[in-house]
């Protein structure tokens, strides 16, 4: 251990290229994160149309409906989708909060169209963070439950409501294994024996 500070030590430490206190808390201004720049969407209607395209994309649609059918709450899916959009710089936190309720309605409408029973929020979780989050979204959940009971009207623009009605219904069970096409000229022993 160093018992006395020498002038050589002071000179050496003053020449070191060290970061300034708090520098690790900020990003390089020349290379900002996507959420540090101006958001891509600033109008709620445009962001909702983008979200509709994202959730009805062929690659995501069946997986999303499968998650809803398996019991993943609508509000949890909404949070994941919206936070991902925020980290990609699609919207700011204020618009993200304004998109939560309409996105939940979209997910509910798609699930209803498919005939899937859905859960709005998981009541069984007793985690403190979940209870705090639940307190902050009580108004949204109340309106969503009224919608589920058929007492409320949808908060979606009419264009999106008509687009939701045009989304095709998945014919096969969402939980079934995908069937692979087997070639007629198979090299299996059963095929060679005519079975």
Choose one word for the global shape: elongated
- DSSP strand count: 0
Termini Cα gap: 83 Å
Q: Give the low-confidence spans.
A: none
Helical proportion, percent range: 40-55%
Largest sheet: none
Question: Which H/E pattern describes the elements?
Answer: HHHHHHHHH
Q: What amount of the residues lies in strands?
A: under 5%
Strand-helix topology:
Blueprint: H1 7-15, H2 44-55, H3 58-69, H4 74-87, H5 93-114, H6 128-136, H7 138-148, H8 158-166, H9 189-192
Helix pairs in contact: 2-5, 4-5, 5-7, 5-8
Q: Overview of this structure, please?
A:
Helix 4 packs across helix 5 (93-114) and helix 5 (93-114) runs parallel beside helix 8 (158-166). This protein has helices at 7-15, 44-55, 58-69, 74-87, 93-114, 128-136, 138-148, 158-166, 189-192. The chain has a domain at 41-162. The chain contains nine helices and no strands. With 195 residues, the protein is mostly helical. The termini are far apart.
